[in-house]
Specification:
heterodimer; A: 73% helix; B: alpha/beta; four-stranded mixed beta sheet; 49% helix; 11% strand
Chain lengths: 453, 182
């Protein structure tokens, strides 16, 4: 049954991409369809719950089916109007994949397989998930509604975990309803989607061998890899935000509105998966305004506002409506504003650097990134991917400000919130490396060498 | 009458025969392949990444055949959570719906169990696996009335036991032992 749900999520995502105007690259659509489809699916389930429709296997599947049909079926102009995503053509391209690409793809698959299997096989393990996401999902499945009897049964023992942004809990609900015993099969597909999108976008810029190698570097970040099969909110949030930033970058470069819409929807799903993403939506919106300001025909401020509004909408529905009015919980009590404590700021700053520079978590990616950024800026004086670099720097600063105001223990702030929150940084750091002038030059040299008879 | 054009598709590219292909293409592919394999090999020869492969990826592959044979949900839960699943299961099996179970403090479980095996002592953990029950968590900071407790989770000579509270002295002894390590 959950296979049908997966297919329906792909279909919803494909339908949305179709509406946005993505038609050409079948593999790109394959990578984007699932996060988009699942994100939309969770919104649909949330709306069903808000309207009082009981959450059952039948009702959710029916809604997904209707959504997929509404997005795909050409109601007005006949079947020919459907922009099929050229999947057969993309499959045909498999024959043209070079030996080099096969090796890197084989290696990527070999590294991914244990993660995909463990997602399917292992029960939910993390303490936070058993006390939060999956607890909410398990009893939502049992009672047919998000606000289940669990909130009253063990209310006195609940901490913040059950009140996290709803994407992961709703995804768990959907896949538990669809019959997967532990629900978290969707996490494997999110991981796969990230890799496909990451690889396809790098491959547009650089030689497949380099794109493949950088994808291997991304997979082999130990901490990130562990969370590809451990259920938490952070990894799915990193998938949404990373893909969103990649497409925001493409929008800045190519000025095509479909990339902007895709990026803002995905960032919205980012806020739907972790509430603090709203703070980063401000940063992303400012960057979009700055980078489109010189382009007269584009309404920069309007674009920035739309981008932020999309995230705010997702944030507000959960934090300003559902938590206080339905679950009767006030999340803002953990924040304190308008104070100055240099010692606290310095401790958080140091703690964040200790986390980021810890090779046990991230391997040598940070040092690799610093080296490439230095070469890119000092030697090549390249500003082509300045958007990405600024995003990385501002995301770090954003975290510093956020953790400074978040009134939880400093140890928990840095060691848990930031460590897992920084998942958003790493794919983009490697994407920066891949789009750097150095890698583009190396890529050109390889391609020229291959062309010479 | 106008003739209908047959197709607007561009003519297909002629497939080159092996003899027509530029010389050295395969050799170059092979060279590139060797360079890529060499790079991946060097990358995973860095002690850190080699250790990651050896401690994570390879063991995961080694576990797979056993896991494929063990698809039973109960076994999967037991193997993954161990005590953290077995203790809630024992509590559920040995108590009735009217039983009130007192869980030890975190300090007590930390003293008697290794770090990986003390998540079970929380009422939510038990609720997650086996649904509603009358669970009470020992907490010295919150003044609680333990008078209705009928069972307590107790560790004796390294073994976990569910003891029945049938006399006030028993409860006092249990509460004392829960407090002791703090």
């Amino acid at each position: 049954m959950y296979i049908i749900t997966i297919i329906l999520h792909y279909a919803i995502g494909w339908g949305l991409l179709n509406k946005l105007g993505f038609r050409r690259n079948g593999w790109e659509i394959f990578g984007l369809a699932f996060p988009l489809g699942l994100g939309s699916g969770t919104v649909a389930v949330f709306l069903m719950d808000a309207m009082g429709i009981p959450l059952t296997t039948f009702s959710t599947t029916l809604v997904f089916l209707v959504m997929a049909a509404a997005l795909i079926y050409p109601w007005r102009s006949g079947i020919k109007a459907v922009a099929w995503p050229h999947i057969p053509r993309s499959i045909g391209k498999i024959k043209k994949i070079s030996l080099v690409e096969w090796i890197s793809l084989g290696m990527i698959f070999a590294l991914c397989l244990p993660s995909l299997w463990r997602c399917f096989y292992l029960p939910v393990t993390p303490y936070d998930s058993i006390h939060g996401i999956d607890l909410v999902a398990k009893y939502a499945v049992q009672d047919g509604k998000i606000n289940s009897s669990m909130f009253s049964d063990v209310g006195q023992y609940l901490s913040t975990q059950p009140y996290y942004a709803p994407f992961a809990a709703l995804s768990q609900t959907i896949y538990r309803l669809a019959g997967h015993p532990f629900g978290k099969i969707w996490l494997a597909l999110m991981f796969l989607s990230l890799l496909v999108v990451f690889y396809v976008n790098l491959r547009k810029k650089i030689h497949p061998a380099l794109a493949g190698f950088l994808t291997i570097v991304l997979i082999s970040i130990p901490e990130l890899y562990a969370y590809t099969f451990l259920l938490q909110t952070d990894f799915s949030n990193a998938v949404f935000v990373s893909i969103s930033v990649i497409y925001a970058f493409r929008f800045i470069k190519e000025r095509e509105m479909k990339y902007f819409w895709l990026s803002s929807i995905l960032f919205g799903f980012g806020a739907w998966s972790r509430s603090e993403t709203l703070a980063f939506a401000i940063i992303a919106a400012i960057l979009i305004i700055l980078f489109t300001l010189s382009d007269k025909p584009l309404p920069s401020f309007k674009l920035g506002l739309i981008f932020f509004s999309m995230s705010f909408l997702f944030f507000a529905v959960w934090n300003l409506y559902y938590l206080p009015y339905v679950l009767e919980y006030t999340p803002e009590s953990y924040f304190k504003f308008g104070f100055w404590d240099p010692e606290r700021l310095s401790t958080i700053w140091k703690g964040m650097w200790i986390i980021l520079s810890d090779t046990a978590y991230w391997g040598y990616v940070l040092y690799f990134f610093f080296a490439i950024a230095a070469i890119n800026l000092l030697f090549f004086r390249d500003r082509g991917n300045l958007f990405i670099l600024l995003w990385i720097i501002l995301l770090f600063c954003g975290f510093l400000v956020l953790l400074y105001h978040l009134q939880l223990g400093l140890f928990a702030n840095v060691n848990y919130t930031f460590r897992r929150g920084s998942f958003k940084l790493w794919p983009i750091m490697i994407f920066y490396i891949g789009t750097s002038a150095l890698f583009v030059r190396i890529s050109e040299k390889i391609e020229n060498w291959q062309r010479i008879k | 009458m106008k003739k209908k054009s047959r197709s607007k598709r561009p003519a297909r590219k002629k497939r080159l025969s092996p003899a027509q292909k530029p010389k050295g293409t395969f050799v170059k592919q092979l060279c590139l392949l060797l360079v890529l394999c060499g790079t991946i090999y060097i990358y995973f020869s860095i002690p850190f990444y080699r250790a990651w492969i050896e401690s994570r990826i390879l063991p995961y592959y080694k576990q797979m055949p056993h896991q494929i044979k063990t698809m039973d949900l109960e076994k999967r839960l037991t193997e993954r959570h161990q005590y953290n699943y077995l203790i809630p299961k024992m509590i559920r099996e040995q108590t009735s719906d009217s039983s009130v179970v007192l869980f030890p403090s975190r300090a007590y479980t930390q003293k008697n169990f290794s770090r990986d095996f003390y998540s079970w002592h929380h009422p939510i953990w038990n609720y997650y696996f086996f649904g509603p029950g009358n669970y009470v968590l020992f907490n010295k900071e919150i003044v609680q009335d333990f008078s209705g407790v009928t069972h307590a989770v107790y560790c004796e000579e390294g073994r976990i036991r569910l003891i029945e509270i049938d006399a006030p002295e028993k409860l006092t002894a249990v509460l004392e032992s829960y407090r002791e390590p703090e």
